[in-house]
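Thread: quick sanity check before group meeting

JM: Hey all, I'm pulling together slides for Thursday and realized we never actually wrote out the predicted structure for the chain we discussed last week. Dropping the sequence here so it's in one place. If anyone has concerns about the input, flag it before I start.
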Amino acid sequence: MEEKPNGTLTNGGAAAASTRSAVAEDELTVFEGKPSPLYHRLIALSLWLGAIHFLVILVITATFFLPATSAFAVFGLLIVLMAIPLNDQSKLGLKLSRYICRHVCGYFPVKLHVEDIKAFHPNQAYG
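JM (edit): ok, ran it. Output follows.
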């Protein structure tokens, strides 16, 4: 590494790397969230983050305010629901996740830079 008079450090391969990244930037595809109506954002955020809070409130309520038999029934139901295998090809699940992603992305200012868009299949979900 060499130090320039202005105090920055340079690496011999840095110039070649910046040239390669300049060429790669021409091929970048940029995705940016679009703002959506406020009610869609609130519904999507509630579905996404509200489920966690609902489960916490359900467990606290069952623990402190229900009789022991009802509380064990609630816990048993939650355990059974955790053990049921999920279908990753579910039409309802895909619609729900696309709705949430479409409207929550407009809430958070995020940009996605994709170098090789052709590597992704348009009909497949990536997690």
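AS: nice. The first strand starts at residue 2 and ends at 3. Confidence is low (pLDDT under 50) at residues 1-25.
JM: adding both to the slides.
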